[in-house]
Amino acid sequence: MRRPTPLPPSGPPPGADDEAPAPARSGKRGWRGAAPDGNGPEPAADPREEQVSGPLESAITEPIDLPVRPTPAPIWPIVPDSDPAARVTDAASGPSEVSRDDSSAGEPVTTPADQPAEGAEAVGMREVWRAARARRRALKSEVRRFTARARRRRAVWLGSLAAVVLVALGSVGAAYSPLFAVETITVAGAQQLDAAAVSDALSSQLGAPLPLVDESAIKAALVGFPLVESYTVEAQPPHDLVVRVVERTPIGVISSPAGYTLVDAAGVALSTTQTPAPGRPVLQVTGGTASEAFGAVGHVLRSLPAEIMSQVTEASATTPNDVTLTLGGTGTQIVWGNADESSNKTIALAAAMQVRPPDTVSRYDVSSPSAVVIQ
């Protein structure tokens, strides 16, 4: 800051006549034109010095207005859009008064930008929340517009799933209701069995829903029929229950003190009569039905075709390797051997019986199917 230039005096200051004149300056640097000792001629007056003549104390000074550097505009706070209430509140309130304390400038300076505009009114909280609600409603409307397709697709999937679940529940409920109760029991596959007797034994299942048929009770009822080898149960909605049985195949009769017992290949007794069953060979097996010889005899008899089986009147074996069959009428014997290669032996026997009928032969030996011996 430069030193202010004094103004020229408009007149002698008050009391100037009473004051003593200022002493002359001395030193190495004196007044221009003056002798060093003060005895020389008086120096000429300088016009420039006339303007500042007089003592400095008598100069009149005035305050000078210093240029004020403009205060930078305040930086408004950035408020996220998610909080419009805070943004509007901050904008309405504005920054506080900014003052500059400069000892050299004098009084604080207040910028016009910090002063509120004339006629401006403070924004109330009700208007702020109203604006926030309007913004939320607009945002929600936009979100619903952009997600309409996804919502429709989700509604279709949910509707389809609900329909499937409803159909499944309805089907299960109907199946376990009296609408699908058993009203008719049919026995299929019975040839030697009495189908009516089997149906009566299964009458306990009448009235039960088809999915709730008790198979253990059906098994217990069929155990009383020895001719039943296996069975299957089929439910035929809405009211039919079909039981398919596979009967045991009798292979012959065994003579005992009680009579003649009809047995199958497993040795299961099917029935007992006082006379041999017609068309069934008499079994002479050492060791009974539990022996290996009986198993070999049963396997051989089941492999015979019907035209040969009908001619057999007796089957005997002491071991599994000496099975022998006897044809009725002629008494011709068939040496079979063991039960191995029974299918090949059957083919060889049929060919030999065509070449040499049984009434002309006493013995067929097919124990080796590749070399049949006829006697």
From TrEMBL:
Task: Mark the transmembrane ranges.
Answer: 155-176
From what superkingdom does this record's organism come? Bacteria
Transmembrane helix among keywords? yes
Q: Which residues form the POTRA domain?
A: 180-248
The protein's location, in the record's own words, is: Membrane
Record's keyword annotation contains Cell membrane: yes
Instruction: Name the UniProt key words of this record, in alphabetical order.
Output: Cell cycle, Cell division, Cell membrane, Membrane, Transmembrane, Transmembrane helix
From start to end residue, where is composition biased (Pro residues)? 1-15
**Region of interest: Disordered:** 1-124
Q: Which named protein is this?
A: FtsQ-type POTRA domain-containing protein
UniProt source species: Microbacterium schleiferi
Q: Which InterPro entries match?
A: FtsQ_DivIB (IPR050487), POTRA (IPR034746), POTRA_FtsQ_type (IPR013685)
- Which Pfam families does the annotation name? POTRA_1
